[in-house]
Design goal:
The protein is α/β, with parallel strands linked by helices and about 325 residues long. It has 2 domains: about 180 residues, P-loop containing nucleotide triphosphate hydrolases (Rossmann fold, 3-Layer(aba) Sandwich); about 120 residues, no CATH class. Helix content is about 50%, strand content about 10%. The protein contains 12 helices and 10 strands. The strands form 3 sheets. The chain has a 5-stranded parallel sheet with strand order 2-3-1-4-9, sandwiched between helices. A 3-stranded antiparallel sheet has the order 8-7-10, with no helix packed on it. A hairpin with a 2-residue loop joins strand 5 and strand 6. The longest helix is centred in the last third of the chain and has 26 residues. It is globular and about 60 Å long. It starts with 7 loop residues before the first strand and ends with a helix.
Length: about 325
């Protein structure tokens, strides 16, 4: 694979819960045209297949074939890929991100990387809320494996039927460092979610330069609300109150297919629609559920210092794109 090519390749690797829908729908999808190939199906289908199973020869061959096609026809154009699960599965905590980023380097060594980070304590809080949309309800303590004032390791895929995560091992800095190791500092753009929310114009200017456009087209505003369930709704309808004292049941087995398809899935869809379109529409009573039991303070001790370094890098990037 070439280290450079006439085709500019930009890969947005997420993460999940870092304004991904904003980037994909509000920005990237509206750039699709003669100069920008955004998530073309002939590439994305085998790429998804390969990342589900890196040993899949058919998926690898499909990716290589598609990339060869775009490199041959892409002089002066940009192949723009947005795939927030490239570093791995969010509820696993991205433990295999070095291997998955190495695979990306093997496939697209000339790529420029867009990595959007988020303060881990806030990311974990958001991931918990996201898990409740389609997953089992339960307290945030169970999701974070927090018992008796201590965060524990992830012991199985499910804890009391919930997805769960090791809250102490979120690799927010390691993902950035591996991107730099594989692609070089000059080809990695780091943006922090906190800056994306408050510096929209600078973010768009940075993206314009990264993609290689002379100007951005008029972007239609994103009018779809993507609000999480409120804390009050979580407590009332998602069993989100304080964790019970009984032992947690861990299991790698999820619900059976028939039970999921014909009972759990429609029931949870009904719950989500009721909360989103009825309960939270009337009164959105919200607070940070991590304040309970001192969870937030404990996570600040783990992540605050290292994330400050990422914030400085992100701010430097945005300052370079200020008028």
């Amino acid at each position: 694979m070439p280290e450079s090519s006439p085709l500019r390749i930009v890969v947005h690797i997420g993460l999940h819960k870092t304004a991904t829908r904003f980037f994909q729908n509000f920005v990237f999808a509206q750039l699709r045209g003669p100069k920008v190939f955004f998530n073309p199906p002939e590439l994305m289908n085998p790429l998804h297949q390969l990342y589900r199973d890196p040993a899949n020869d058919a998926g690898r061959a499909g990716v290589v074939e598609a990339l060869t096609h775009f490199r041959q026809m892409g002089h002066g154009k940009c192949l723009l890929i947005s795939k927030p699960d490239i570093p791995g599965e969010m509820y696993d905590g991205y433990p295999e991100h070095p291997e998955y980023l190495a695979l990306l380097k093997e496939l697209m060594p000339e790529a420029h990387i867009l990595y959007v980070a988020r303060y881990p304590a806030d990311w974990l809080h958001s991931a918990y809320r996201q898990s409740l949309v389609k997953g089992a309800g339960g307290p945030i303590e169970t999701f974070l494996n927090f018992r008796e004032g201590v965060f524990g390791e992830k012991r199985a895929i499910y804890a009391d039927g919930m997805r769960n995560i090791d809250a102490r091992r979120f690799p927010v800095r390691s993902i950035y460092e591996h991107c730099v190791e594989f692609f070089g500092e000059d080809r990695v753009i780091l943006m922090c979610f906190e800056h994306v929310r408050s510096n929209k114009e600078r973010v768009l200017e940075c993206l314009r330069k990264l993609i290689g456009l002379d100007a951005l087209p008029h972007l239609e505003p994103d009018r779809v609300k993507n609000r999480s369930f409120s804390a009050r709704a979580i407590e009332r309808f998602c069993s989100g109150g304080a964790a019970p004292q009984r032992p947690v049941v861990f299991s790698d087995a999820g619900p059976g297919h028939v039970y999921w398809r014909y009972w759990l899935k429609p029931l949870r869809k009904l719950r989500a629609n009721f909360i989103k379109h009825a309960y939270d529409n009337v009164s959105y009573d919200d607070w940070n559920l991590m304040q309970r039991g001192g969870m937030r303070a404990l996570l600040d001790e783990v992540y605050e210092a290292e994330y400050e370094q990422l914030l400085r890098i992100s701010q430097t990037t945005l300052d370079a794109n200020s008028d």
